[in-house]
Each structure stands twice: as structure tokens, then as C-alpha cells.
Design goal:
Largest sheet: 6 strands, mixed
Number of strands: 6
Radius of gyration: 16 Å
Strand order of the largest sheet: 4-3-1-2-5-6
Helix content: 25-40%
Strand content: 25-35%
Structural class: alpha/beta
Oligomer: single chain
């Protein structure tokens, strides 16, 4: 049985610090990132789609806009988390060290299943997280 994938990307800007990084990524800094969402289904809908691209935009891409775009992400175990939040209430304290890999995992395993739950037979199975144009992490569920 074939597996059919529909993909859409979204660009956004964010800041972060990588807790306990051995180099300059431990410092506060920002990125213009790109996330590519891959949604899969075993069958196509009556129109001939896995999922309408606008649904990916209005769910997954919109979640990025609402939660991480133009925000600063900091790991809850980083001692700077609460002081940064006190300075700027838009700082997002996350339960993981905000590396590209962990951000992709969070989108794949936490965000995707909740947002796509109402679309029967559709699963977010792969997230490509580009921290920069040259550096990315890919996480996949099979």
C-alpha cells in the first residue's frame, strides 16, 4: 500500500540559547528558521489530497506563528530562564533544550498529534527543522 505525503514549509524568526553548549551557541542569539511539515495518509480524500495545504498552514504553521515566531525560547533548567522571563514576558520557557533536534521532536510528537487529531487518517510523520539555511535536523516517525 503506498504512503502519500503532503508537505508545506513555514519560515519564522526566533531566538534561543542552547543550555550547556560548549561554544557560542550557549549565548543568547537568534535565527531565521524554516520548518517543513510532512503529513501522510494511506488514502486520498474525495478530492484527491492527503490534506489540503491550507489546513497545514492554518494548523501547524499557525502554531509556529502563535507560539515561537519572534519569541525567545529557553530551557526550563537554564538558570537564566526565569530572569529572562521577568525582563520580557514573551520569553517562552520550554521543557527541552531548544536545539533544532529537540524543537523538531516537540513539533512531531507533541504539537502535530494534537492539531491533526480531527483529521482522520492524517499523521505528521516527519519534521525538517532548518535552524539556518545550512544546518538542519530531521525527525521522523515511521
Amino acid at each position: 500500500m503506498p504512503i502519500i505525503t503532503a508537505s508545506r514549509y513555514h519560515d519564522f524568526s526566533y531566538g534561543h540559547t542552547v543550555h550547556e553548549h560548549e561554544s557560542k551557541c550557549a549565548d543568547l542569539h537568534g535565527h531565521n528558521g524554516r520548518v517543513i511539515f510532512h503529513c501522510e495518509a494511506n488514502t486520498l480524500d474525495s478530492v484527491g489530497r492527503v490534506i489540503d495545504f491550507s489546513v497545514i498552514k492554518s494548523t501547524l504553521c499557525q502554531w509556529l506563528e502563535d507560539n515561537w515566531d519572534h519569541r525567545f525560547l529557553v530551557y526550563e533548567k537554564d538558570p537564566r530562564a526565569e530572569p529572562l522571563k521577568a525582563i520580557d514576558p514573551t520569553v517562552v520557557i520550554v521543557p527541552f533544550n531548544p536545539t533544532a533536534e529537540n524543537m523538531g521532536l516537540y513539533l512531531l510528537n507533541e504539537v502535530g498529534p494534537v492539531l491533526l487529531d480531527q483529521y482522520e487518517g492524517i499523521a505528521l510523520t516527519k519534521v525538517e527543522f532548518y535552524e539556518t539555511r545550512k544546518c538542519s535536523a530531521t525527525v521522523t516517525n515511521f
